[in-house]
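Example for tutorial group B:
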């Protein structure tokens, strides 16, 4: 496996042949292999050309990749190789090997891309075939190529930041902590990370502190709280989530958890409170990636709002629960919230290019986004905007992402030491005993 960044100049014969899906995952991936040769087979451009017409994420990545490659090739032909600023060389591969076993169809584009890598190997180079497609890597490996995944943005899911850690506190310290509201804390903690303080002695009580990096102290967080629009936290991790979601000083919040842990519900409740009651934001903007099982969004009948309803039904289900629980006159129906623009449902396709000030943005199912897409979304946040990203890294529908390479995991890892962000991992499903069992066993 390779991430590109740890490749050096010690062996100038290293040659990295990129599959199409690598450029879809990260359009400027060819810049990651410092001091080495990068070959993009001509057939990759055939696939990019087909994908560029797609209005969804793959189309945007294809167009971005084509433009990026064009920008570095304006002054020298790609067939001869273009010197990159990082000391590497970018070249388009034109030749193909014919050493394919019987039965492996040479006209298939995937196979022709592998054949290009084989040709580079026949020239005596140390070739690495880089692909996000496991099947393509297996075929390349069988044919004698070094087949690797592109891991520039991969993080270790086993050690992914959880947003909280355990600590201990005496009864006397707890009384002072609760009275003063803060307590100095010298142990290593990330900004806005929670410390769950177990009271020493026979008591099993847990007290909550959130680390304030600038003050090197824990802020006391009451373990109980009033219901928000009729919704109360059902466990301690949901209480921590509410603390982050309702704090305007933290503009970026990430939450991960299995089905039923309350990620979407908590985000919606907090967003409605901050918008309708506290008037801190102009609207709640909700979106989620469209990963179709069949036809794409554009092929569904009706206008954009009608199309979005098919994909946003989980959001509407949660809104119905909130409306039933809130019992307030200003929360009568989902249609009222939409018509009054308290809530806006938007496709991620249309968020790109917008500037979004003073909005409470919720991106659901964010594990289906690439790191590049997450960067695009978060960079849309205008002055006074709060962004919430939630999802389950173990339930990914995109064929080119996994629990370690998706944009949500990448963002959690990248922002864990930032004062501007907070994260919490929700563990317990509160949907039902059946849902909890299904999440554990299936």
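The residue assignment follows.
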């Amino acid at each position: 496996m390779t991430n590109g960044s740890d490749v050096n100049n010690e062996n100038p014969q290293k040659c990295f042949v990129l599959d199409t899906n690598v450029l879809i995952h990260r359009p400027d991936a060819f810049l990651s292999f410092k001091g080495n040769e990068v070959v993009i087979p001509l057939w990759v451009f055939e696939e990019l050309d087909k994908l560029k017409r797609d209005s969804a994420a793959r189309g945007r990545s294809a167009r971005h990749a084509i433009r990026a490659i064009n920008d570095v090739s304006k002054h020298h032909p790609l067939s001869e190789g273009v010197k990159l600023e990082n000391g590497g060389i970018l070249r388009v591969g034109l030749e193909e090997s014919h050493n394919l076993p019987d039965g492996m169809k040479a006209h298939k584009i995937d196979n022709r891309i592998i054949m290009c890598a084989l040709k580079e190997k026949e020239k005596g180079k140390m070739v690495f075939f880089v692909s996000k497609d496991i099947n393509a890597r297996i075929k390349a490996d069988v044919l004698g190529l070094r087949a690797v995944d592109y891991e520039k943005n991969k993080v270790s899911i086993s050690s992914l930041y959880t947003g909280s850690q355990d600590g201990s506190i005496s009864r006397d310290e707890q009384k002072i902590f609760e009275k003063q509201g803060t307590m100095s804390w010298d142990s290593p903690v990330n900004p806005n990370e929670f410390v769950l303080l177990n009271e020493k002695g026979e008591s099993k009580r847990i007290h909550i502190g959130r680390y304030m990096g600038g003050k090197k102290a824990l802020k006391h967080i009451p373990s109980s709280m009033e219901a928000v629009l009729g919704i109360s936290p059902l466990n301690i991790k949901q209480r921590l989530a509410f603390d982050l979601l309702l704090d305007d000083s933290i503009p970026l919040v990430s939450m991960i958890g299995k089905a039923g842990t309350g990620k979407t519900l908590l985000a919606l409740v907090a967003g409605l409170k901050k918008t309708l009651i506290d008037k801190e934001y102009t609207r709640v903007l909700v979106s989620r990636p469209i990963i179709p099982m069949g036809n794409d969004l554009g092929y569904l009948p009706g206008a954009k709002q009608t199309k979005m309803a098919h994909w946003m039904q989980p959001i509407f289900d949660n809104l119905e629960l909130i409306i039933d629980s809130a019992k307030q006159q200003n929360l009568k129906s989902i249609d009222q919230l939409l018509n009054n623009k308290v809530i806006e449902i938007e496709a991620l396709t249309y968020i790109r290019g917008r500037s979004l000030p003073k909005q409470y943005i919720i991106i659901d199912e964010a594990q289906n986004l690439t790191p590049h897409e997450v960067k695009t979304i978060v960079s849309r946040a205008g002055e006074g905007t709060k962004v919430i990203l939630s999802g389950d890294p173990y339930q990914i529908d995109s064929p080119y992402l996994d629990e370690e390479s998706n944009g949500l995991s990448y963002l959690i890892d990248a922002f864990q030491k930032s004062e501007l962000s907070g994260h919490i991992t929700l563990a317990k499903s509160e949907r039902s005993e059946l849902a909890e069992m299904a999440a554990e066993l299936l």
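The CA atoms of residues 20 and 239 lie 44 Å apart. Compare this with the pattern of hydrophobic and polar residues in the output above.
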